């Protein structure tokens, strides 16, 4: 049975952010699926709830597990949710986890500052679209530039989703994870805040820090991130052989 990859996107974006990774996997014959969380992408009209977000991940993982060992891959909010799901205390059919740009506990001053910034952007005449586009134009290569926003921007779900994350006991969840785990961060990622803590909670985890890269590591350095996927897939293939 071949490794199955399940992708979980970050806040505001959608399943389209994984197009580069999906093309990489297609070229090598690996099966994959990328979910849209509630309030995002094709589900943008839905309300975001933590329960439905975790249920979405669970449904995709359990479906994929009928065909082979599952590598769960999450970015930013999707990484936080994937960590919470995998280490949530109930047995899940996850065989390995790549958690990108998410080594920060979603609590306290850090979360409050992030929500304040999101609200400030949302208060601009175009809800911050012009500024966001300029940042993306300056940091993301042409081949992945359109992927981040191709499924639309979930601006209405953003603050609700951020507030929901504070209900997670992420430290306890990470400490319960015993399977192969990779933390992937850009060198200048603002969510590296608790990187050392996360690594101490999961001593089996491998930490990969990508130089000269910010939060959007999957789009800024797609070839590097794809190499991490190949490493993770090879690890699970070796363990299942």
Please name the defining characteristics of this protein:
single chain, 241 residues, alpha/beta, 47% helix, globular
Which structural class fits the helix and strand makeup? alpha/beta
Broad shape: globular
Report the count of strand segments.
6
Uncertain stretches: none
How is the biggest beta sheet arranged?
6 strands, parallel
H/I helix tally: 11
Helix content: 40-55%
Secondary-structure element string: EHEHEHEHHHHHEHEHH
How confident overall, as mean pLDDT?
Answer: 90
What fraction of the residues are assigned to beta strands by DSSP?
5-15%
Cα end-to-end separation: 9 Å
| Rg from Cα | 17 Å
Widest β-sheet, arrangement of strands: 2-1-3-4-5-6
Quick structural summary:
This protein has eleven helices and six strands. It has helices at 19-28, 50-65, 77-86, 108-122, 129-139, 142-145, 155-165, 170-176, 195-201, 217-220, 222-240; strands at 4-8, 31-35, 70-75, 94-100, 181-186, 206-210. Strands 2-1-3-4-5-6 form a six-stranded parallel beta sheet, with helices on both faces.
């Amino acid at each position: 049975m071949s490794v199955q990859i399940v992708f979980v996107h970050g806040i505001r974006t959608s399943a389209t952010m994984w197009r580069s990774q999906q093309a990489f996997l297609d070229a090598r014959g690996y099966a994959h699926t990328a979910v849209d969380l509630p309030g995002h992408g094709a589900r943008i009209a839905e309300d975001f709830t933590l329960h439905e977000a975790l249920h979405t991940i669970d449904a995709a993982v359990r479906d994929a597990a009928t065909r082979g060992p599952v590598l769960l891959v999450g970015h930013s909010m999707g990484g936080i949710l994937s960590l919470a799901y995998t280490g949530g205390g109930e047995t899940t059919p996850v065989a390995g986890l790549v958690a990108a740009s998410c080594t920060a506990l979603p609590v306290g001053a850090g979360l409050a500052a992030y929500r304040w910034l999101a609200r400030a952007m949302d208060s601009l005449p175009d809800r911050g679209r012009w500024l966001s586009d300029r940042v993306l134009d300056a940091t993301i290569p042409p081949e992945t530039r359109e992927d981040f926003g191709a499924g639309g921007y979930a601006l209405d779900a953003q603050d609700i989703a951020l507030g929901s994350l504070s209900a997670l006991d992420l430290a306890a969840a990470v400490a319960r994870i015993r399977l192969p785990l990779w933390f992937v961060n850009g060198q200048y990622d603002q969510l590296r805040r608790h990187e050392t803590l996360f690594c101490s909670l999961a001593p089996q985890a491998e930490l990969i820090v990508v130089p000269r890269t910010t939060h959007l590591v999957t789009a800024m350095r797609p070839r590097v991130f794809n190499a991490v996927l190949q490493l993770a897939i090879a690890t699970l293939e070796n363990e299942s052989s």
